[in-house]
Amino acid sequence: MIRVVVGRGRYSRQVRVPFWAFALAGAAVVLASLLVLAFIASLAIFIIPACLIGAGAAHWLGRSSKSAREPIFTRNRRPYDPNVIEGEYRVLDERRR
Question: Which residue spans within the chain are E strands per DSSP?
């Protein structure tokens, strides 16, 4: 028999637990973890090919033109002039306008 302390502080006591109960609890933990592992592996069987097929389709359908690879913010802009500084502004306080 194995002695286990149950409770906390003044209300603690020792309980005797037979070895077969610990063995049964350990076997239950091992079986539950194997069940979870099998479930995750079965999900991976479906998720990994779906991701690969989706990535292949995105790659194959995504190359429509050369301009699609060009960043959006550089399209339809005037040529660069070194004497011009561009920027944006926002009014933070309407009363100070």
Answer: 2-6, 13-17
- Burial of residue 57 (CB within 10 Å: 0-12, 13-18, 19+) is exposed
Contacts of 18 (CB under 8 A, 6+ apart): 1, 2
- Give the pLDDT confidence of 43-95 residue by residue, as tens digits: 999 999 999 999 999 888 876 655 555 666 655 666 667 777 777 878 787 77
**Length of the chain in terms of residues written:** 97
Place of tokens 């069987």: 45
Helix, coil or strand: residue 76: coil
- Domain ranges for the chain, please list them: 2-96
Report which listed range, 8-12, 30-34, 61-65, is most confident.
30-34
